[in-house]
């Protein structure tokens, strides 16, 4: 399978998305039309949410923003999730089953979801974290943006040239039926560079970005939910992969902004 340019965001319910195995807004979940990330972003990991009994529920991507805090999407940490196991290998798939997937990762932790999160309108406050049971020490972590940092993009000239770096694990291409994607969901960390199409949307207000999702720029798909969209080539997380607008991982992908006051204040409680 070719690995060049494979990073996009699919549309489906979170359970169907990664049950481990008009424009309908649905959780986004893998990178399409991107490239292998390798050691480019070692602080980006793959998480498997588990219920209180330790049963695997679904998988998502996310970013380590400190030695003990893993940032992801709210629809990745919502009930019945109570715990998550996380892997940081660039290629998790090749290590199965010796690496413990999907039961025991490099580290585990407790899941928390934004206090205003509503599963019936998940995209409005689509933010979650995993507080790790023990520190994961790295040379560098993902960083949070400044308050309202992305607002400057609304009036920026040359907006069509503004790019983000999307990173995640999961589907690398879209398929017409559930059975087909299960055989191609490869759990490899991928990277793409989608362009900014729109800042804010009619249905999410000022809480989301719309990024390109095509063969030229790449995008996101099933398995990328919660993964970072870094501003440019930096380690600053402008937002987390949140939703898709169609079932073919094409056109555009939705990103939940993390530069708003409610998000930064909530995250500060964990970082403090």
Overview of the molecule:
Strands 2, 4, 11, 12, 13, 14, 16, 17 and 18 form a nine-stranded antiparallel β-sheet that branches. This protein has a domain at 42-140 and 260-271: Thrombin, subunit H (Beta Barrel), CATH 2.40.10.10. Residues 1-24, 26-30 and 174-184 have low confidence and may be disordered. It is built from four helices and 18 strands. By secondary structure, it is mainly beta.
How is this structure best summarized?
The protein is mainly beta.
Keywords:
single chain, 272 residues, mainly beta, Thrombin, subunit H, nine-stranded antiparallel sheet, six-stranded antiparallel beta barrel
Global morphology: globular
CATH architecture call of one domain: Beta Barrel
Sketch the topology as an H/E string, one letter per element: EHEEEEEEHEEEEHEEEEEEEH
Query: Averaged pLDDT, please?
Result: 82
Q: Can you lay out the helices and strands and say which pair or pack?
A:
Blueprint: E1 6-8, H1 14-17, E2 26-27, E3 30-33, E4 35-36, E5 44-50, E6 56-64, E7 69-72, H2 74-77, E8 83-87, E9 107-113, E10 128-132, E11 164-168, H3 178-182, E12 190-192, E13 196-201, E14 205-213, E15 219-221, E16 228-231, E17 237-244, E18 251-257, H4 261-271
Antiparallel strand pairs: 1-3, 2-17, 3-15, 4-12, 5-6, 5-8, 6-7, 7-10, 8-9, 9-10, 11-12, 11-16, 13-14, 14-18, 16-17, 17-18
């Amino acid at each position: 399978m070719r690995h060049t340019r494979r990073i996009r965001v699919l549309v489906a319910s979170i359970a169907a998305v990664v049950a481990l195995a008009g424009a309908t807004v649905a959780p986004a979940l893998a990178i399409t039309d991107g490239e292998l990330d390798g050691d480019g972003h070692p602080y980006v990991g793959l998480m498997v949410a588990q219920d209180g009994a330790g049963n695997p529920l679904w998988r998502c991507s996310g970013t380590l923003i400190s030695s003990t805090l893993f940032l992801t999407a709210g629809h990745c940490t919502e009930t019945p999730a109570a715990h998550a196991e996380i892997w940081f290998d660039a290629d998790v798939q090749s290590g199965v089953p010796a690496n413990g997937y999907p039961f025991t990762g490099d580290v585990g932790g407790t899941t928390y979801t934004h206090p205003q999160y509503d599963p019936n309108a998940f995209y409005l406050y689509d933010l979650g974290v995993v507080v790790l049971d023990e520190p994961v020490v790295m040379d560098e972590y993902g960083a949070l943006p400044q308050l309202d940092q992305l607002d400057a993009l609304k009036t920026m000239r040359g907006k069509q040239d503004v790019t983000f770096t999307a990173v995640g694990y999961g589907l690398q291409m879209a398929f017409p039926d559930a059975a087909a994607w299960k055989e191609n969901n490869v759990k490899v960390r991928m990277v793409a560079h989608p362009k900014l199409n729109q800042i804010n949307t009619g249905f999410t207000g000022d809480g989301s970005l719309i990024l390109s999702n095509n063969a030229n720029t790449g995008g996101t798909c099933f398995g990328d939910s919660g993964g970072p969209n870094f501003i440019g080539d930096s380690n600053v997380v402008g937002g987390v992969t949140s939703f898709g607008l169609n079932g073919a991982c094409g056109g555009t992908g939705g990103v939940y902004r993390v530069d708003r006051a409610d998000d930064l204040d909530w995250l500060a409680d964990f970082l403090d």
